[in-house]
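Narrative summary of target 7.
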Amino acid sequence: MIFTSSGAGYHSESKAKEYKHVCKRACQRAVDRLRAGGLALEAVTAALMELEDSPFTNAGTGSNLNLSGEIECDASIMDGKSLNYGAVGALSGENKSHLYFVSFLVGKGAEQWAISHGIPACPTEKMTTKFSLSGYKRNKRKMELAEQVETKRKRQLCGHENNSACLDTVGVVVVDREGNVAAAVSSGGLAMKHPGRVGQAAHYGCGCWAENARDVSLYSTAVSTSGSGEHLIRTMLARECSTAMQAENTHQALLEAMQNKFISSPFLAGEDCVLGGVIVLRCCTCGEAQRSEDIQALLVEFLWSHTTESMCVGYMSAQDSKARTHISRLPPGAVAGQSLAIEGGVCRLGTVSD
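Modeled conformation, tokenized:
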């Protein structure tokens, strides 16, 4: 089962087809890997690379440019089976999906490590798109004309017309036929950010989380977040949502986590607009399937929630012929940053036991 997001932010109707297509391709890449016998970690990497290669996402190719007109990306990945975690921050010109669980590398050190391990560099100019460059020039002109304090400038740059460019961190969560989970996240960060700024995508427990059940009474969970990096870092939302998924009612548990641990979090008491989104997956072995010696079945629940105006998601199992995609939007009259949307589904996956 693969669950992807091209980001929480603002998705215009005019580009809805492109956003959905990105998620479909990512799902297909991951499912192809799973059908070939690949594990969750391989599938999550394949899907993330597809999302990064799209010019319509704020990750890898097409990422937002910083104040210096350069691309600096953040990413992380976590394996639920081993609990290994790897991340890179403020990285330019490399394929970020090859993290190999080296904890946390940033900047030039991360680039040098990648080159020494045979990972080919990707020149920054090839990652810059016409869209990201025009956005940089537009924002640069605004900064040159405006004489305002830093906080007001950020709000102006991350307003409605640029919301998608600011917040579209991409994410993936996967469960394989053996019940292993994995999660990954990748982002180009805020438009016009200060060089060296590292967002939630590279922070432990903030960008993604994956953890196999260590006991038959527990659930395996995988989470990936998107939105305002500062808000997600201060609340460690990925791990908070993973913990919440041990409750019986997943929908209610995620709703309470988003409301109490994010929107109303004491760590964000001074914020009047809390922006973020999550994709969550949890699974367990179905009780009736445990009687069979040869066949097991995984019951998989997947949910998404966001406080941003919209969030684009896609999901697909190895038994599906094609991926399903959806652009979730806040209810009519709801205020972004103060309200939330939540949806989800359930599927059963057949697996062969050892």
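The radius of gyration is 19 Å.
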